[in-house]
Design goal:
Strand content of chain B: under 5%
Shape of chain B: extended
Largest sheet of chain A: none
Largest interface: A-B, 73 and 91 residues
Strand content of chain A: under 5%
Helix content of chain A: over 70%
Largest sheet of chain B: none
Shape of chain A: elongated
Order of helices and strands of chain B: HHHHHHHHH
Distance between the termini of chain A: 55 Å
Order of helices and strands of chain A: HHH
Oligomer: heterodimer
Number of strands of chain B: 0
Number of helices of chain A: 3
Structural class of chain A: mainly alpha
Distance between the termini of chain B: 68 Å
Number of helices of chain B: 9
Structural class of chain B: mainly alpha
Helix content of chain B: 55-70%
Radius of gyration of chain B: 23 Å
Chain lengths: 102, 209
């Protein structure tokens, strides 16, 4: 069986990739995608720890399912905001959306 | 560690997840990014299958690939003028790469048993006998649910079916609607999702008049 830390390393790498994307991309949709990657990394961690530490309890899987729900809500609201910004400013580049900056 | 079909499948799905994820953040074409996101999500669902969470694997495909990734594709199409950007990374990308690399190294040192305990102690001190990674690595396969041991008749002690059934979809469904289980978080999550979707409609719809 694959040892637990393999999963943790994959999850850490996926999280780091997502963090890089969220920090470095200019397009807001790409940032949303990077955040999805980070949520996925967290989910891999949750399920892996559930599987190796406490596989007969159900809470690990339930927790991962709640992460799905939050991810869906986040994607829906985030993309709605992006479309709304695009409609009023004709851009989805985050640096160009600086009305709240002083 | 011997190479089994499980190890090979893990490697394949891990490469799929990480390669897809990497292409999401470095691809210049946003449309390709979204397609690679689907690949990465599919790899994650494969990892869930290996972790014996078939319900989550199915939900991953249905909700993530079927709904969220498609939603992203629609958002890209609605903002299509933005796809042909020359500069896809902002000017601070070297700093972002450094942050991501340092984050990964910290997490790797923490979870991996490859880091020698003496080396770890020399830098960080502490009187723990082992590093955290070594303690994590001992959590391996001594679970009753995953053993290749056979009894005297040569039969597997734990049948493959037993492994697959230790948390059933039925049990998950029951836990979500019983008072001893997770009915309150479940209802809260429903309210969150409803509010988010209504909010999304309100934010994204065109102003009439």
């Amino acid at each position: 069986m694959v040892p637990l830390w393999f999963y943790l390393v994959v999850s850490a790498a996926l999280f780091a990739i997502g963090a890089y994307g969220a920090l470095a991309r200019r397009n807001a949709i790409a940032i949303v995608m990077s955040v999805e990657l980070m949520l996925n990394a967290a989910n891999i961690n949750l399920v892996a720890f559930w599987r190796y530490l406490n596989p007969f309890e159900i809470n690990g899987q339930i927790f991962a399912a709640f992460v799905f729900i939050v991810a869906a809500a986040e994607a829906a609201v985030g993309l709605a905001l992006i479309i709304s910004i695009y409609r009023s400013r004709q851009t989805v580049i985050v640096e160009d959306v600086n009305m709240l900056k002083w | 560690m011997e190479i089994t079909w499980q190890t090979i499948a893990f490697a394949a799905f891990a490469v799929m997840t990480l390669g897809g994820g990497l292409m999401v953040v470095i691809s210049r074409n946003l449309w390709h990014s979204a397609l690679f996101l689907m690949l990465s999500l599919f790899g994650t669902s494969g990892l869930f299958v290996l972790l014996v969470a078939p319900f989550l694997a199915a939900v991953q495909v249905l909700v993530y690939i079927g709904a969220i990734a498609i939603l992203v594709l629609f958002a890209i199409m609605l903002t299509r003028r933005m796809m042909g950007l020359e500069e896809t990374q902002n000017t601070q990308w070297p700093a972002a790469a450094a942050v991501a690399l340092v984050l990964f190294l910290i997490l790797f040192v923490t979870v991996s048993p490859l880091v020698d305990e003496q080396w770890f102690k020399d830098i960080f001190g502490g009187d723990e006998k082992d590093s955290l990674g070594q303690r994590i690595s001992r959590l391996n396969a001594d679970l009753p649910v995953d053993t290749d041991e056979r009894d005297e008749n040569g039969e597997l002690k734990v049948k493959p079916n037993d492994q697959l059934n230790f948390v059933t979809v039925e049990a998950i469904g029951e836990a979500l609607v019983t008072r001893d289980g997770f009915v309150l978080p479940f209802e809260l999550a429903s309210i969150l999702l409803t509010a988010a979707l209504i909010g999304a409609i309100v934010v994204a719809r065109e102003d009439e008049a």
